[in-house]
Amino acid sequence: MKKQAYNPYLPSWEYIPDGEPYVFDGRVYVYGSHDMFNGYVFCMGDYVCWSAPVDDLSDWRYEGVIYPKTSDPFNKDGRMCLYAPDVTVGPDGRYYLYYVLDKVSVVSVAVCDKPAGRYEFLGYVHYQDGTRLGDRPGDEFQFDPGVLTENGKTYLYTGFCGRGDKSRHGSMCTTLGPDMLTIIEDPVFVVPGCEYSSGTGFEGHAFFEASSIRKIGETYYFIYSSEVMHELCYATSDNPRGGFKYGGVIVSNCDAHIDSYKPADMRAAPAGNNHGSIVEINGQWYIFYHRQTNGTWYSRQGCAEKITVQPDGSIRQVEITSCGLNGGPLNGKGYYPAYIACHMFNENGGHPKVTQDGKDGDEIEGHIDGIVNGSIIGFKSFDFKGVSEISIWARGYAKGRFEVKTSWDGEILAALDIDYTNIWWKYTANIAIPDGVRSLYFKYIGGGNPHFKGFELR
Ligand code: FUB
What we know:
GO biological process, one term: xylan catabolic process
Low-confidence stretches: none
Number of strands: 31
Helix content: under 10%
Organism: Candidatus Faeciplasma pullistercoris
Bound molecules: beta-L-arabinofuranose
Protein name: Family 43 glycosylhydrolase
GO molecular function: hydrolase activity, hydrolyzing O-glycosyl compounds
Strand content: 35-45%
Radius of gyration: 22 Å
InterPro entries: Glyco_hydro_43, Glyco_hydro_beta-prop_sf, Glycosyl_Hydrlase_43_Enz
Largest sheet: 6 strands, mixed
Distance between the termini: 22 Å
């Protein structure tokens, strides 16, 4: 790899949640929504695409705008947002983009000859009499399409189930014919929402949103965001239109359930909605998901972690890290930006936040603010060897110290005293980090609210 790969995997000034990863012709393409820095609602941008060669997951290329939000006939004035999309290759070899706008319950389709060219609006998914899916009396709410095409049929999964809404039953599968628009098999519910999960095996992890579908061997894997929102779960079946059994949690964007370094119910990062999917890249499976930044749900960023599909087809929950696509721990020496922190929490509740200077689109490296006395910021993980000095860059109205540790509640290995400064200021201390693969934590003790830009290990 040319560089090391971090989480988030795209530049820190890019905000692409809901990522659906696919490998086409030797490159990984990610199709997601497009949030903005300081966005005041979800998904304020046009769809853009990023891709990377399968043999260098650090080398992401901006493919540009693939679909402006005003391309949909229902949205000529740009009043609505493009919610989470998905892409599938049709029987004609072209690429089909499925999405819903945020204020209408119909599924739109756009098409392109290339994975990341300019997609053109094609039409709305409809029954054979021309009635749009979502418009027929009795149709349930259409949301977050996930699509898979095989043998001339496209399986379209949609739905959104809020707590207390008995009109929503779960995620539904609708089968489309080779024109990619016309329904040939009516919707059937495949995974229950929380109002209908009792006795199904999905209790506590019922379907909320973010339908996504993949196939491994002969097994269909339905990936979705559960009723607790921060976790991506999976269910499996040998039939795309039914028989799905709950499998488990693959990732939680706050590491809920993980008890290897903290209590299982402790949230190691700001929890928020989640959406993504699994993909095999060069023989390794990954889960793509997103995290929340800037203290809101409207500036989300894509992250990824390695997963293992066990011989029995099961997938165990993986931890959130700073280095998901890197293939292993980060080099134990060098400069690292603070925005790659995977753990951010305060001793007395709440979380610091990743943010950036400037406005949306300004290519300025992100940093962390919202730091208070007792804030803990962690990075996972590094392969340390012979580290003897550490520097940090901080600024802001603050006077105190950053303690450095290799576990959030562990021994203090160094302390860096900081003072008021209006510009990024470098502070250095000697440290002896034991060799080996470990996390790195910074705990702030003091007054005020420092900003944290990055650190260097030597
Ligand atoms: O990005 C907008 C919406 O938030 C998506 O459609 C949902 O899946 C959730 O991630």
